[in-house]
């Protein structure tokens, strides 16, 4: 695909609008009980859009200029909340380890603990992924060597997520987390927000985000590049997700901005609908009959190793 351009102005407008509307939803819901539920629902879906913007930034696709991409990525991180650098490190590693044993949640081996596998699976569907991501920031802030600890190295899904984190990353991560703390301290003080309101809003947002995080990977081919599916959904939902339902296309072409994903997949069909795939996830993990692909290196990922062999 030639002449690829990042929609800088549109992405800037969406980033600032999302930040403003998200804060407004919390404030209005906190001060006006009659609007609490509508504002909570609005915030939960703004949260999805905010993560989609954060995701673009982790791929350096939110802004053409590196500095502005970083700034808007950090701002999006404020609302999650997460360190932008942690999000970038873990998401890049997700692309490198996609559908390997490190990211196999939907299948189990005969020697796996079914109690653990089913518990892990349904905890994600019930909203557990979001608090793990958030509290992970706090742990890394105080204990940056935690990813290398014996505890994490015994957890298959956590062994490689932050293995590339270096001392410069730790400094950046700590600064970003301090900025997040300062931002929310200021917001709570200026608008005199109830902490209970914040908790309610983020429980809703965290559930809405967590329960659908694995939806485009569940039961897909066990292949680092092709291990995702495209899902059909309505236009509004698609725009909220910034075409995130076209995830197979994204994994084949992670360099493409969100505005190109649907066009890139125009000659390909969607595998199923978003809703049907979501319902299928609730049937639980299945027995694995495929061999695990090998994780790819960062060099292979950024060079698009084998990507062309999978593209049509």
UniProtKB/TrEMBL annotation:
Single GO biological process annotation from the record: lipid metabolic process
InterPro entries (alphabetical): FA_desaturase_dom (IPR005804)
Annotated TM spans: 12-29, 35-54, 70-89, 121-146, 177-203
Top-rank lineage group of the source organism: Bacteria
Membrane found in the keyword field: yes
Signal peptide region: none
Pfam families the UniProt entry points to: FA_desaturase
Keyword vocabulary terms for this entry: Membrane, Transmembrane, Transmembrane helix
Name of this chain's protein: Fatty acid desaturase
Originating species: Leptospira meyeri
